Automatic annotation (TrEMBL):
Part of the 50S ribosomal subunit. Contacts protein L32. The gene is rplQ. This is Large ribosomal subunit protein bL17. GO terms for molecular function: structural constituent of ribosome. NCBIfam families: L17. It comes from the Bacteria. One of its GO terms (cellular component) is cytosolic large ribosomal subunit. It comes from Sulfurihydrogenibium azorense (strain DSM 15241 / OCM 825 / Az-Fu1). One of its GO terms (biological process) is translation. InterPro entries: Ribosomal_bL17, Ribosomal_bL17_CS, Ribosomal_bL17_sf.
Amino acid sequence: MRHRVKTKSFHRRKEQREALFINLAKALILNGRITTTLPKAKALRSFVEKLVTLAKEDSIHAKRLLSQRLKDQKVARKLYSEIAPLFKERNGGYTRIYKLEKRRIGDGGEQAIIEFVEYPEQG
């Protein structure tokens, strides 16, 4: 039974699950859009939105927490200097998820695209 179980385990230990979300978050922050499975995209949404909310706060403590949680100072710097200012006026809802019709070839897993609502175009 799943009574009072808050998160999905993805059949991984806690450390592996945290590493998975950190790597997915890094890819999303650097690229603005990634393709992954639907359950991972839904779980990643809450992880990334908490990071963006933290990055909107302009303090040394918030910047250090971001570097600690993402385990990469370059990615954290991009988050609080380029992405967070785009969402200053927005109170949540920083990402969107599109379900893809095409399923993954190996196991038929549902695919989805997760992206930031506002992301600067790379040119």
